[in-house]
Amino acid sequence: MKNIFKILIITLLATAFFSCQKINDFLDLKPIDNGVAVENTSSSGPTYKTADQVEAALAGVYAGFRNEYFELDYFVNGDAQSDDAYAGADNPANFQIDDYKISPTNSNIKRDWAYLYTIIGNANVVINNVDSVPDPLLTANRKNEIRGEACFMRAFMYFQLVQLWGDVPLQLKEFKTFNAAVLPEVYPILFPKRAPMADVYAQIILDLETALPFVKATAVNKNTITKGAVNAMLSKVYATQEPHDWNKVLKYCNDVISGGYSLLPNYDQLWDNAHENSVEAIFEINYEGTASSGNWGASMFRGLDWKKFNIPSNDLVAAFDAENDNIRKTSSIVFLNVIGKWSDTHWPQLNYPFLNKYRIFSSPSPQNYIFIRLADILLLKAEALNETGDLAGAAALVNQIRTRVSLPNTTANSQAAMRLAIEKERRLELAFEGVRWYDLKRTGRAIEVINNAKGVDGVNLGYAISEFQLLWPIPQAELDKNPQLNQNPGY
Question: Fewer CB near the terminus (10 Å): N or C of the chain?
């Protein structure tokens, strides 16, 4: 099949040499799954001729944050794949993810790969063509700003990809000329190899460093990418890539903290929908609740019309209860009566839990999603301080987070104990925000924690995951059409 597909592509390219117009009619800036965008070569001159055109293209990249990946799968991948939530609902693809038995033909991983690379493809076109826009209304400053915002988004998508799959194709440009003469140049773009994780992280950092000088310092609408968002992402990347660079984590966390953010006084204000784009939010996706800007994903987590996704786990509820953390538990989880609706082996029908952080679950919903907020960065700084020997500094930050929810100061009195204290604090503070699975992976704790996760009555759930299950399989559909790809070990 791979050889057949290769022959078809070569034939298509050869045909394009003699019949350019027909191919041009077929191609019109259509991103394909590996992040390539093909420009219609029937038009001459720059890709974007006016300021409005490139602004619309940038808006198209931003729109990627409102697709199925970020409305639903982002939380399935980060939470249902962890010990914080069960898959829920009735989707076999989600069950595979929840049970760490993912097949290369899993429909979720196929679509997630496609979603992320499509956004990358759209970002590539903006990044590579914004400088050539001839419209004098588009100032040099705005060109730099647009490039910076698009670079951030490309970095954000690659950060998702590298955490999920490890080595992934690194696509940074589109091709514009589609004919047999450019086959040697086009072939590696159409059929990219997997780049080593180190190279992917290097590109992520380069994109973020490119963005940092040019994006806005602040914005009222936290949907706009700002220096705070870029600094926050740099801190997360340096805390994730191996080896961790804790000094860089400290630097970028400090840069975020000095950027005018502060914790809301009441934890529940983050979720009451009366404090959108708050002083604590660093990067928040805004929805208007209209047909064109409605958050369909919120209805996937709460409601009595059908069994929902990401059901809070017994293990997480027990963690809240053991800490006597009633404030964050109540904000994060609501228990409802589902008698006559459905049954579940994990929970009784009379006291069935749902996510409570995303509370407007009508469709279309105006429910915003907060992807990065200050508490996350404060706890990441605490982690960096602990790893660099400042136990007291780490404790002060953990206590700041705990004080807001009326909990006593941490009792951790050693570096090892503080590691676990920070891990627990991040779990309870950031529950259902899509970060738990990645936290466990980057700290090397995923296998131990998941294999010891408890279910009903504290009984071990029986997971027995191995190292290879920390990464997803490459989607079979991508292997079938790209002979340069190879499968992850174990699949």
Answer: N
